[in-house]
Specification:
The chain has about 425 residues and is of the alpha/beta class. Helices cover about 20% and strands about 30% of the residues. The longest helix has 19 residues. The relative contact order is 0.13.
Length: about 425
Amino acid sequence: MVTPSSSLLTLEQALATMLDAVAPVTVADTENVPLTEACGRISAESIVSPVNVPPFDNAAMDGYAVRLADLTPGALLPVAGRALAGVPFTGQWPAGSALRIMTGAPTPAGAEAVIMQEYAQVDEQGVRFSVAPAAGEHIRRVGDDIRQGDEVLPAGRLLQVAELPLLASLGIASVRVCRRLRVALFSTGDELRPIGAPLAAGEIHDTNRFAIRLMLTQLGCEVIDLGIIADDAAALREAFRQADSRADLLITSGGVSVGEADYTKTMLEELGQIHFWKLAMKPGKPFAFGRLGQAWFCGLPGNPVSAAITFYQLVQPLIARLGGRRDWRTPPRLRARALTPLGKTPGRLDFQRGRYRLDDAGELTVETTGPQGSHVFSSFACANCFIVLEQARGDVAAGEWVTIEPFNALLQG
C-alpha cells in the first residue's frame, strides 16, 4: 500500500528510516577476484596477513651495523663487509668490527644498532663514530608493521588505492569480495528524449538517468538501464516487473510528487509497499522509498539538481548498506565564512552549491556558484561543496558563518 505523508520529514528522519529498513543483500553471494580487478569492490571477509612486515630485521638508514660492546669512545673499527637491499651480508663478522649497511638491507645476526653515515668518519683503516647509539636504533624489527596472522582489513571494507597496494605488499594476489549490487534504472516522462536526439517543442534531454548512471558506476554497482519509459500503464508495469525480477534496487526519476497525474504511483500501489515523502530539504522535496516484491525502490524528483542531491544524501548511503559496506561514514561538515550573500527562505534544510577554499589567513571561506534553482545543473560544474543552511535560517549576509559539506569522491571527479 502506498502511504502518502502531508507533513515534512527531515533528512535525518528519512535516512534513518531507510537504513533501519534494509540489510546487506550481497554478503552471502561472493567471488574471488584478482587484486588487479578488485578496485571499488567490497571485502567479503576479514583479510589476514600471511607474512610478517617487515619479514626480517633491516636497516632504517644508510650507515653502519654495530655491536654495542664494540663501541668504546674514539674506537676505530675496521669495516668487515657490507649489506645491501636484496644482497645480505653472508660472511663472518669478526668481533670489534662494523658492517657497511644500506637502507632496507637485512641486519646481520648480532647487530644491535645502525649508526647513520652522517655520524661516521671513514678512512682507509676503518670507521669512527661521533655518537653512541641506543640499542635497536635505526633497526626495523621483523613484524614491526604487521604480524603474521594480524587482520589487515575487515570485512565490509571498500577496496581502493589505499588498501590494494597494502594487500599486494603482503603477497596477496586475490581477494574475496561481495558481488556487485544490481541496480535497475529508468526515467519516466513523454517529454524525455535520449541525449543527442533532436528535440521537438516541449521536449528535453534525459540528463537525470545519465547522471544517476554515472554515480552508480562510480559506486561500483552493476547497472541495469531500462531507458526511458513512456507515461503508459502497460509499459510502466512491465518496467517495474523487469526491475523487480532482475535487481536489488530500482531507482526512477520523476513521477514521485504527491498529487501528480501519472501512472507511477498506481503501479507502485499494485506492486509494493512504498512511502511517498515530502522532505524538509531543498532541492529535493518529493521522494519515494519502499519495497517492490523483491527489490528496494527509490523514486527521485524529476528536476536534475533535486535528483542529484537526493541521490547523494539518501541513495548513496543506502547503496553502501545494501552492498555490504561497513566503513561508510557520513561526509563531514565544516564551518566556513560566506564571501557572498546567500538567499534562503526559512522552512527547509537547503543544500546550495558552493566553492570553498582556505584564504591567506588560513580561514575556510565559501562562495556561491551562482543561481541555485533545482533545474540549474551548471551550479554543480564549478562547485566543490554543499553550503548546508539550517531549516530555520533565512538569508545569509556576506561575512556570516555557514556550514559546508565538502563533496566526497562521488562528486569530486
